[in-house]
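Sequence, please.
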C-alpha cells in the first residue's frame, strides 16, 4: 500500500450529500479524486431553488455548493475542499505552516481574482448572465492568467511538488 492509500479514509459507512449545480465543479472534482461516494442533490439556480426556505435553512447565503457529512454541514467551495482534505486525505492540504499559508493564499485567489475574472466571464458567455461586467471580468481574467503562467513557469503544481486543494480550487 502506498503512502497516499494509507492516509486516505474511505466513507463506505457514511453518506456524503452534495447540494450543487453543474456550473460549480471543484467540489465534485475533489470528491472524485479522493474516491468518495456521495449523493448529488441538484439545486436549480435558474428556478431560484437556492433562495427557497428549505435551502436557506442549509445555507442562509443562498448559494451552492453545500456539503452534508453526517451531522456536519459545510458551505462555500473553499471551506468544503478544506474539510474534505483534512478529514479524508490530509495529503491534499499540507499543514506545515509555510505550505498551509501558500495553500490558503491560492484558495483566496480562487475565491477572488479567479471568481471575479474567469468564472464571471464564463457565466457571461456560457450562461448568458448579462449582469456581469464583461470588461471588468476580462481584465481580471487576463491578469490572473498572466500570474498563473508566471507561477507555473518552473513548477507543475501550485504548492509544493504534488497536487493540493489549491490546484483543485483554481482548476475550474
Ligand atoms: N464563495 C462561494 C460562492 C458560491 C457561489 O457564488 N455560488 C454560486 C454558484 S457557482 C451561487 O450559488 N450563486 C447564486 C447566488 O449567489 O445567488 C463559494 O466559493 O462556494
Amino acid at each position: 500500500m502506498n503512502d497516499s492509500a494509507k492516509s486516505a479514509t474511505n466513507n463506505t459507512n457514511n453518506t456524503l450529500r452534495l447540494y450543487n449545480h453543474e456550473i460549480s465543479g471543484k467540489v465534485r472534482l475533489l470528491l472524485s479524486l479522493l474516491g468518495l461516494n456521495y449523493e448529488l442533490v441538484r439545486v436549480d439556480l435558474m428556478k431560484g431553488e437556492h433562495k427557497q426556505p428549505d435551502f436557506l435553512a442549509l445555507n442562509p447565503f443562498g448559494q451552492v455548493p453545500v456539503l452534508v457529512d453526517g451531522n456536519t454541514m459545510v458551505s462555500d467551495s473553499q471551506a468544503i475542499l478544506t474539510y474534505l482534505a483534512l478529514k479524508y486525505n490530509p495529503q491534499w492540504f499540507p499543514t506545515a505552516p509555510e505550505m498551509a499559508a501558500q495553500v490558503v493564499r491560492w484558495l483566496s485567489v480562487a475565491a477572488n481574482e479567479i471568481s471575479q475574472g474567469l468564472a464571471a466571464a464564463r457565466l457571461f458567455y456560457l450562461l448568458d448572465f448579462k449582469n456581469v461586467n464583461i470588461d471588468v471580468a476580462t481584465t481580471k481574467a487576463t491578469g490572473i492568467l498572466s500570474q498563473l503562467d508566471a507561477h507555473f513557469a518552473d513548477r507543475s503544481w501550485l504548492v509544493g511538488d504534488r497536487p493540493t486543494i489549491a490546484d483543485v480550487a483554481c482548476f475550474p
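The domain at 3-91 is CATH 3.40.30.10 (Glutaredoxin).
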